[in-house]
Amino acid sequence: MTTVRPESRLQQSLDDVTRVLDRHRVLETLTHRQEGPKRDLLESLQHRQNLVELHKRLRAMHPADVAFVLEALPPVDRQTVWDQIDADKAGLVFVEVSSAVRAWLVECTERDALVALLTTLDPEDLGYISEDVPPEVLEQASRTLESRDRQAFEATIQYDEGQIGHHMTHEWVAVPETHTIQQALADLRSRAELPPQTDRLFVVDARNVLRGSIPLQALLLADPSLPVLASVEADSTTFGAVDSVQQAASAFERYDLVSAAVLDARGKLVGRLTVDAVMDFVRAEADMRTLKQAGLTRDEDLFARPVDSALNRWPWLGINLVTAFLASRVIGQFEHTIRDLSALATLMPIVASIGGNTGNQTMAIMIRALAGDQVRGSGARRILSKELLVSLLNGSIWGVVVGIVAVALYANYALGAVMTGAVVLNLVVAAVAGVAIPFGLHSTGRDPAYGSSVLLTFITDAMGFFLFLGLASAFLQ
Amino acid sequence: MTTVRPESRLQQSLDDVTRVLDRHRVLETLTHRQEGPKRDLLESLQHRQNLVELHKRLRAMHPADVAFVLEALPPVDRQTVWDQIDADKAGLVFVEVSSAVRAWLVECTERDALVALLTTLDPEDLGYISEDVPPEVLEQASRTLESRDRQAFEATIQYDEGQIGHHMTHEWVAVPETHTIQQALADLRSRAELPPQTDRLFVVDARNVLRGSIPLQALLLADPSLPVLASVEADSTTFGAVDSVQQAASAFERYDLVSAAVLDARGKLVGRLTVDAVMDFVRAEADMRTLKQAGLTRDEDLFARPVDSALNRWPWLGINLVTAFLASRVIGQFEHTIRDLSALATLMPIVASIGGNTGNQTMAIMIRALAGDQVRGSGARRILSKELLVSLLNGSIWGVVVGIVAVALYANYALGAVMTGAVVLNLVVAAVAGVAIPFGLHSTGRDPAYGSSVLLTFITDAMGFFLFLGLASAFLQ
Questions:
Q1: Residues B359-384: what's their mean pLDDT?
Q2: Rounded to two decimals, what is the model's pTM?
Q3: Is residue B300 a part of any domain in this protein?
Q4: What residues of chain B lie within 8 A of the CB of A370, using their CB?
Q5: Residue A155 sits in a domain of what CATH number?
Q6: Domain boundary residue among A293, A321, A346?
Q7: Which chain B positions have a beta carbon within 8 Å of A386's beta carbon?
């Protein structure tokens, strides 16, 4: 047995592969520079040796580690590595990479090779990547599935990505309710291996309706002569196939589950949700939230082609441009005021910026509470009044500080007072917007984070300019 | 057996508790309004009945669900619920709530009750919450631990929160390498129950050095007469107690682990890391990242006292204020230019805003790549050159759009040209800053997300103002 420290192993893998690739690249450059038949032969021998070494190293690596290496490599190296992966491992690697890199692999793999690779996958994995491959390739690959697997595959793709049905496995161990522990154990022993993440057996009746589950541990400790129903867990968590994975993830976390039964509307066992699928979902969700909050429409390959990258960023860039123009029109209305006192132009971004900052703080707290389903009608009102108090408190302290600095800079007391007033009022605006925007997005069924930042900044900018310049034109003329 | 849909259960719990609380509150209001001894008696009877019902409902709930309800309730209701939780459940609930609510509970629970509650916890849980309770309370509670548990507790708190040692459990099943499968099974059966999330047994030699692990599944399927060493997994993942949990989390995700051995420097078995601890860590990490990115110094109770909330937001508010002032000083240098052409004041926030937006997009991608350890020296350079290309591409397209709008608004071609130039240059600045800031934070060992937004906005604001006003004063006079 060898025990392995995963991180050293992972970084080691990346280092190893990079080293071989570097040698490979140096060689290619040399070959380009110097011609001549004898040199050529030598080089090509060495060249082949390098590829053989690369192949050997990749063969020894876990598919998830190969996926990690692929994601971290720029396209030219990625191609070299991809070409050296064994056909039987390529499928698993294809499932493990990020969807952005998967799109890249689809593009640079020939259609027949792609189909061959997909046929090595089990039906759940095929369902998992179904949205990333061209429909005709998927169709061709799924035709090779045996009828039972084909059913599982079709069951998977009939649910959408947010539903448990899309993420459940169709492999589980079920025993009839009439069995004894002894019979259940004999049943298990007759199998070559159990499906991964099997921590419990499901007990079903003759119509496949779930009667309960027995943890493997309980099975090991139970009296073999007792019926299985006697060892069934008193209170076991189950899910519906159409329920949201998001909520299943919270349940796995709260109740420390490893696997759970998935039932159809009539209580029949149709699948099993495992902790690894849940963890993949949680991680992907967290990653996407960060990207979406920053205004990216979808996942992006680290080494994407610049044109693809640029396009991925257009929608939010465009929206931001429109909102920035709208906010600036507010300033446009006060150009005569600014002409009279150009200090206003200098100070106005401060009012806008401090509003954006505090609004984002409020919003972060709201988004987390909403994502956890912890805000009810009366709760939202309470949070709003708390946030209003906080903003008045912060506004009156920091507003005065800002006012004093303005007076120090421009020796103009009225200007200082206007500045203080504008900061207090804009913080109130920020508090209201910080609570209202995520709440509004959430109550229309959207992710409370999506696009919230752009919307908030628009409001705090526009109102910051309006409050400051409006107060100035009213009191400083 | 009852099978339970977790979400309906959870929302049901919250509804039930809220309903009882509402009744309780209405009653309190009535009691306040109307006096009189007879009314009083009746009310207090009903009052007591409500509390009894609340108590009954709470007793039937999972500790994690009670924690969820506590987090979602405003302080006055929270207190009522907390008072009705049984002493033996209160400890588990205390472990499950968020650290912000835990701080609230510490404040409103008497010291003796707090100590009593902590003595019901196992050593790992006590270690887990050790930083949230006053040291003297912790000391008092840990004194009641038996010597073995006390050792485990002390082992836990000697590691810091980022290390695996702080999150591992000290409960596992180990068998001597000299045992047969038969003996190992007998060993298991002699126990009343196995520790939670036991998916494998550890095989150790006489000096407690790990020789490998056997999945429970393999144990069930193996020939009972063989020695345990024959069934040991060929390639099992282990961790060091001082390794980072962050990296362990990636490994759990990549290799779909349920539990893994934790070893000391000499290869001795000192703990076991389980998937539930890893998942809690991943979730907490993702939550904290969102909060920290928005400029909150620590987790915040949804219903915190306004003063506490305000203070939590001060550090970043202060920093933001300073950077906003610094950026505005750039404008201050050009006040005479603005006096001549006040349209500049109107347009300059657009240049700053579009820079901030694209910079944040670049940064989101960098942060994710760095958090996943996928960026090496040459990778960073490649990403930078890609981002520069993207910014030039987006800049020349959107910059021209912006320029045309400016011409349309002010009928001034030179102004449009200056606007276009400033947007292109500021997008280049944003690309450089978006790659450099997280890379810089990461290479000094910090979280690449922490404070990155404030820093980026400062740079894109200041440079946006400088480029636009600088170009204007050079070319428009």
A1: 83
A2: 0.82
A3: no
A4: none
A5: 1.25.60.10
A6: A293
A7: 303-304, 306, 309
